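Following up on my earlier thread - several people asked me to post the actual chain instead of describing it. Fair enough. Here it is, all 179 residues.
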Amino acid sequence: MEYALKHAKSLAKTLLKEAKSGNANVLKRLKKYYRLDENHPTELKLKMCQHLVAKEAGLFDWQQLHQLLSAEVADNTGQTNFGSVLHSSACDRFLNKWFASYQEAQRALTKHSYLVPFKHQFMVVKGHYFAEIGISNMPGLSEFNNDLVKAYPSETWDKLVAQVFAAKRSKLKQTANQT
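Reply from S.P.:
Thanks for posting it. Predicted structure:
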């Protein structure tokens, strides 16, 4: 489990660079968790941006995200807190089926749908869901019957989540270049 963590770290470094260059959007996001003096951007630290990455991934802090991404909490029984790593508010417009238990979600899974964890809950979604979170290809997922909980902590899961963080970083860089 190295790909997703590498991309999460890269995203945090890009956020730090953007914050130090005065990117108003990044500074606004950081202000949710820190009191910042915009006149002294050198006070910004990488750990602040790592914390932001973790919070925006629906987890408590960087340590919790690090544990998830490095499989230190490997538990494919459906009890792991996956945060919102595999979710975006842009996905809310889709009609996804939500389930409180992993077993219920498994029963609703078909060969044309996917089981996706969200914190301690589960969704069954269609393929277009993944484009919204930055996943463009899903090799190896069929090996796990399209179940991303079952796939955790495999290399397949790691590479899928890496795509999510890479897409966030790419989007951040695009918006920074437009300003």
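Residues 155-178 form the longest helix (24 residues). That should answer part of your original question.
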